Amino acid sequence: MKEKQEFIYYITGESREIVENSPFLEALKKRDLEVLFMTDPIDEYAVQQLKDFDGKKLVCITKEGLDLGLDEEEKKKFEEVKAQFDGLTKKIKEILGDKVEKVEVSNAMVDSPCQLVTNEFGWSANMERIMKAQAMGASGQAAYMKAKKTMQLNPEHNIVKELQKKFAADASDKTVKDLVWLLFETSLLVSGFNLEDPGKFSGRIHKLIKLGLSIFEDEEDAEDAADVDDDADLPELENEDQSAMEEVD
Questions:
Q1: Contact (CB, 8 A) for 100 and 93
Q2: Which of 44, 89, 175, 224 could bond to 103 as cystine, CB 3.0-4.6 Å?
């Protein structure tokens, strides 16, 4: 590890491949900070007891409160950015409800629009997975085993910026709400959690696929309805003339 690095950053996960592609690494890679990969289940138990090593504190990058070593100028600039997204974070929290403990803006991402972190002193997503596997189907413990999640948004990402514009234009837009849920569910997957309702997630994905293929199931119905309305608007005089002509024939 480089001498200038203040903390020992680490990430736990099911495999090396999974943690290597994690969005949690983006900001640390950008700052050229090294991260320790922990992919053995026993690692989760070990780091609960091992708080520091060789005078350096161990920091889990999948939990909130990540310190990236920003200088005062960077911190001040980021606080200004956070203030600009207060309305968006509150609206997303209203939509997601108790699915997340809170929604906040974070500088821990570069390419990803959002991610889910857990409480600093709680379980990580990987620990939640391990404990659920050990419970052997004990459904009564399911609520206890859920980690408290915080949704973090990347203020520099185009998706987040566009969402802010959409909510400003129409806060009740159902399509935008569906996109918020889709963002939440995709961030569940990339952050190491399991989907609670895969059926709803697949339904939202199918809607996007249909949109990409220009499939509009209600289009024909809408055209039929328009035809009916047009017929209803015809002048009565024409109908009377037509009836008269039929009688002559």
A1: yes
A2: 89
pLDDT in tens, 188-221: 999 999 898 899 999 989 988 988 898 876 554 4
β-pairing verdict for 56-60 and 8-12: parallel
Name the one residue in this structure whose structure tokens are 């963002």: 183
User: pLDDT tens across 7-46, in order?
Assistant: 999 999 999 999 999 999 999 999 999 999 999 989 988 9
Alpha carbon 110 to its chain centroid, in Å, reads 15
Q: Are 37 and 30 in contact (CB under 8 A)?
A: no
Rounded to whole angstroms, how far apart are CA atoms 100 and 184?
9
Strands 52-53 and 56-60, by their bridges, are antiparallel
What residues contact 119, with CB distance under 8 A and at least 6 apart?
A: 63, 64, 101, 147, 148, 150
Q: What is the DSSP string of 87-105?
A: HHHHHHHHHHGGGSSEEEE
**CA 184: distance to chain centroid?**
3
Dihedral sign for Cα 25, 26, 27, 30, please.
positive
**Using one digit for the tens of pLDDT, what is the confidence trace for 90-130?**
999 999 999 999 999 999 999 999 999 999 888 889 888 88
DSSP 56: E
